[in-house]
Design goal:
Largest sheet: 2 strands, antiparallel
Helix content: 40-55%
Structural class: mainly alpha
Strand content: 5-15%
Length: 156
């Protein structure tokens, strides 16, 4: 399970994702939100722990993904939902800046997501990010105590 954050700004994150990952982000956000609310098998996953207490920010990220998917004509979203989201989100942008009471983000937090996206689809993502030759892939999530960022490795 992953939430791709190659930028601080959720709008820019949604805009840069390829169609496949954009739709997958909506699904994964719903799974994380469900685990946060109802528990279950994903409730102790490092990504779920990372978003605990920041449900509103995750909903915002998911909604930006829905708006972007709708603007591309992919996914099935009702026009009423999309119009309501447009009114709400384009007038009040959200980003990780609003999650200020967490431990400071590691310096290479966003670059690691950029690198991972490049590994997934170099042709598509090279338009958005420079290639990081010597940076190992991985992503950061909060540790179990929620006091520090931990680097997790990930597969392709």
């Amino acid at each position: 399970m992953q939430v791709f954050l190659p930028y601080r700004d959720f709008y820019l994150c949604a805009r840069c994702l390829d169609n496949r990952r954009l739709l997958k982000q909506i699904l994964e956000c719903k799974q994380i939100l469900n685990a946060l609310k109802n528990g279950g098998p994903w409730s102790n996953h490092c990504i779920t722990r990372t978003w605990r207490g920041y449900d509103g920010a995750l909903v915002s990220y998911m909604n930006y993904c829905i708006l972007e998917a709708s603007s591309r004509g992919i996914g099935k979203f009702s026009s009423e939902i999309v119009n309501n989201l447009r009114l709400a989100y384009y007038s009040c942008p959200w980003s990780l800046r609003l999650c200020g009471d967490r431990p400071s983000l590691p310096q290479d937090y966003f670059e690691r997501y950029q690198l991972h996206l490049l590994h997934k689809n170099k042709e598509y993502y090279s338009k958005f990010f420079p290639f990081y030759e010597n940076t190992p892939s991985g992503y950061y999530a909060l540790n179990k105590a929620g006091t520090a960022w931990q680097l997790y490795s990930l597969g392709k």
